[in-house]
Design goal:
Blueprint (H helix, E strand, L loop, with lengths): L23 H4 L5 E3 L9 H9 L2 E7 L10 H12 L1 H7 L4 E6 L9 H15 L4 E8 L5 H17 L3 E4 L5 H14 L7 E4 L6 H6 L3 E5 L8 H11 L4 E4 L11 H11 L4 H16 L8 H4 L26 H5 L2
Parallel strand pairs: 1-2, 2-3, 3-4, 4-5, 5-6, 6-7, 7-8
Helix pairs in contact: 3-4, 3-5, 5-6, 9-10, 10-11
The protein binds zinc ion.
Zinc ion (ZN) binds next to loops.
Length: 331
């Protein structure tokens, strides 16, 4: 099985495209969004530009698996280093504040020998600037090895006083979600420090009732589409609910958060509620890391694309850098 986020065994393909209002940008003018789960390493500069144009001002990139298993510790190390280094720089070149969560994903926890080595590496990255949680961790196939490393990382989160971003399994979701929460409680985690991701209508009530944060991934071709998200917010209210795209290397939509906000506007959800589920709740949850300062993205970020990261630039030969006027002034 291929656990790209865009796959859910019980999900029935809905009518694609038609759900997305063509003129959605007209409904969200001036609104600001925070996507708390998106894998930018897999996305293009066009995506960054479109996200900035749609009002996304900040994002969280969870560490996850890359579509095929890594074969050694060095590739994990380079990947984590890129999340706090090059990818953060790339994001800044489009005016988007980039945060990440660091963790060993459930899929690769099943290579136990390598996973043990990764566990020793994690503390070297968990305490770095801009790391807002341990994630995404949890269950995939719900194996004994996954449980072992999930528990070990819950302990690391407690030790580091960081929020936890839980990936719930796409198969046996209800059971996997309940089990993930029970184990987190068993380890003494405050549910207010735990963000349970990839919820659906079957899991949301229990997650909220137990005091956890409930994140929802908007998949472009499955039934947890925008309309369903509107209904969830209508039914449960906006408290402790957040929307994300989980866009990665699979079929996914990096504009899922602003598009969902547009649909909520059209369906009459209040502006306050929309702001909570597409911006503020994610900030409140992950700011418990002490690593998010809203002032960093409260006003448009100055962009100077002539900047370099370790001597490397996003520009290709002959391209003119974008330099915001005020950034020229301080040069
Ligand atoms: Zn993910």
């Amino acid at each position: 099985m291929n656990p790209s986020h865009a796959q859910d065994e019980h999900e029935v393909p809905a009518q694609p495209v038609a759900e997305t209002p063509v003129d959605y940008m007209a409904h969200i003018k001036g609104m600001r969004f925070f996507d708390p789960h998106i894998h930018m390493t897999s996305r293009t500069t066009d995506d960054y530009q479109a996200m900035a144009d749609a009002g996304i001002v900040a994002l969280i990139e969870p560490a996850f698996w890359l579509g095929q298993p890594r074969t050694g510790l060095a590739t994990f190390k380079d990947y984590y280093a890129s999340l706090v280094g090059w990818e953060r720089f790339r994001s800044s070149q489009f005016g988007i504040k980039h945060y990440c969560t660091i963790g060993l994903n459930s899929r690769e926890a099943n290579n136990e020998a390598l996973a043990e080595e990764v566990m020793e590496l994690l503390p070297l990255f968990a305490y770095k600037e801009g790391v807002v949680g341990i994630g995404e961790i949890g269950f995939d196939d719900q194996t004994a090895a996954e449980e072992k490393f999930y528990r070990a990382q819950l302990e690391l989160a407690k030790e580091a006083n960081l929020p936890v971003q839980i990936h719930t399994p796409h198969r046996n979701k209800k059971e996997g979600t309940e089990r993930s929460m029970a184990i987190a409680l068993e380890h003494g985690l405050d549910p207010g420090m735990v963000i349970v991701d990839h919820n659906n209508e079957e899991t949301v009530k229990s997650v909220l009732d137990r005091g956890f944060w409930a994140a929802f991934t908007i998949y472009p071709f499955t039934k947890m589409g925008n309309e369903r998200m509107v209904e969830v917010v209508r039914q449960y209210g906006p408290g402790r609910i957040m929307v994300n795209s989980a866009a990665d290397w699979g079929i996914s939509d990096p504009l899922a958060v602003p598009k969902t906000a547009a649909l909520m506007v059209m369906r009459g959800i209040s502006p306050d509620a929309i702001r909570l589920v597409t911006y503020q709740n994610a900030i409140d949850a992950f700011a418990q890391s002490g690593q998010i300062n809203e002032a960093d993205f409260a006003t448009p970020m100055l962009i100077d694309q002539s900047e370099k990261f370790n001597g490397n630039t996003i520009l290709r030969g002959g391209q003119q850098p974008r330099r915001d006027a005020s950034s020229l002034l301080i040069k």
